[in-house]
Structures are given as structure tokens and as C-alpha cells.
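can u pls check wat happens w/ magnesium ion
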Amino acid sequence: MGIAVEAEDLRRTYRSRTGWARARRTEVDAVRGISFSIERGELFGLLGPNGAGKTTTIKMLNTLLIPTSGRARVCGYDVVADTREVRRRIGYVFGGDRGLYDRLSGLDNLRYFAELYGVPPREQKRRIGELLDLVRLTGRERERVEGYSRGMRQRLHIARGLLHRPEVLFLDEPSIGVDPVAARELRGAVADLAAAGTTVLLTTHYMAEADELCDRIAVIADGAIQALGTPAELRARAAGRVGTREPTLEDAYVAIVQPS
Ligand SMILES: Nc1ncnc2c1ncn2[C@@H]1O[C@H](COP(=O)(O)OP(=O)(O)O)[C@@H](O)[C@H]1O
Ligand SMILES: [Mg+2]
């Protein structure tokens, strides 16, 4: 046990110039003081509307963005002071189509990234085999990625993000644009991963997915955490608002981000 991810009053303000001759300074407070911690092996969900600050939060935790203030540790290492140590222990997967080589097979993509990530040659074959099994692509690995469905690509992305055996995996909207059958396979792969001990931070807009997968969920809106708890605890917040039926996580989410 122990803590895998710890955020303490994390803030990020984007400063940019806009308008004619870029003369106007604009500031966006994307994340306004977020604190939470994720246990080792926990599958933690970050839910919230577009623009809520989910990706900004993840990018501060995975060392791609420096916090404006506050602190964060991953596997005990500070994300600003110990960037290298953090990077060795994390994987990052985001939704969409970028980042894979279409003209190569799934297997050759994984071989390429295994080289890039410094996976020892003697271990590559076995590790790639295990990951293909985990993401349910065994048997399809010699086909070119250009013929893969969206769901297959996303699962290949996850395998790529796991090649160096990260302790913590950040999954930013992995199921975006994935059809329901493929999304179910993706959920299975994520659940297996967490069951095998990897800590997962997941963002998604699919409430049923979050409800099924997550041990705990933080709902974020406007750069701040609005609610944090197990799916059951969050659902209970919507009791009485939906008549006599059992409230769903979606009911709770709407009640939290759009209080009446
Ligand atoms: N590079 C950037 N420059 C300026 N503003 C940004 C940048 N990236 C994100 N933002 C703004 O920060 C806020 C949070 O964005 P983001 O973290 O991407 O939210 P989410 O992932 O929850 O949709 C939004 O208002 C967004 O427009
Ligand atoms: Mg985002």
C-alpha cells in the first residue's frame, strides 16, 4: 500500500497574449488549488466538463507542465524537482489518433517504442507478448495499424504506454470516439491493468465507464474539485433528486456540476 500520487493545492495559470498585435494579456486560471491523493493500485477517475482542468492537472502530474504553485509527488518523487525519477515510473496515454505509425504493424510500433524507451532487447519479445495479451490484440499484431479500428488503436496506445512497466498510468479520455463494443474491451484491459497493481488515473466523459471502473472519483469543474468519493458515495448524493428510481452516477455528476 501507500500513496502513488499526491497533489497539494496545485494551481496552473496560463498566460498568453491575444488580440491585435497580441497586445492584450490574458490569464486563464485553469486549475485553482487542487488537492487529492491516489493510493497505490487504485483506479482513480477525474470527471468534469470540457475545460474543467483535467488535462492540465494530468500534465502537471506527468511533468509536462510546471505548476504555477502547489506541489505534487508521484511515487514519492516531486514532479518539479525529480522530473527524471517521475518520468521513469509513469506512462501517459491520451485519446485520439496521434502517436502511432500507421504504415507499420502493431507489433512493429511496439518494437519501435520499446527501443525508444530503452527496454532491454532480451526482454522486448516477452513484454510485447504480454502487453498484446493484456490489450487483447494478440493475433492482430502483424496487421498494419492503418487497418485498425479506433478501439484497437486506443488499446495499442495503452500497450505503448506500458512498455517500460510504469507504476502509474495516466489515461486522458482513452475511450473518446470508441464504439461501445470496443469501449467494453478497453474497459476490460484497464480493469486487468489495475488488478495487476498499476495505479491508474483516468479521465472520461462516459459515466457508466467511470462507475464500473473507478475505485474513487473526483468531479472537477472550473479548476476545482467539487466532490470526491467512491461511485456509490457520489450516487447517493443524487438520492431524492430523481424520484423513486436509483440515482446513477450521471445524475450525481449533473447535480454536482450544475447545482440547481
Ligand atoms: N495551452 C493553453 N493556453 C491557454 N489556455 C489553456 C491552454 N490549455 C488549456 N487552457 C485552458 O485551460 C482550461 C482548462 O483546460 P483543460 O485542462 O484542457 O481542461 P479539460 O481537460 O478538463 O477539458 C480551459 O479553459 C482551457 O481553455
Ligand atoms: Mg482534456
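The two ends are 39 Å apart (CA to CA).
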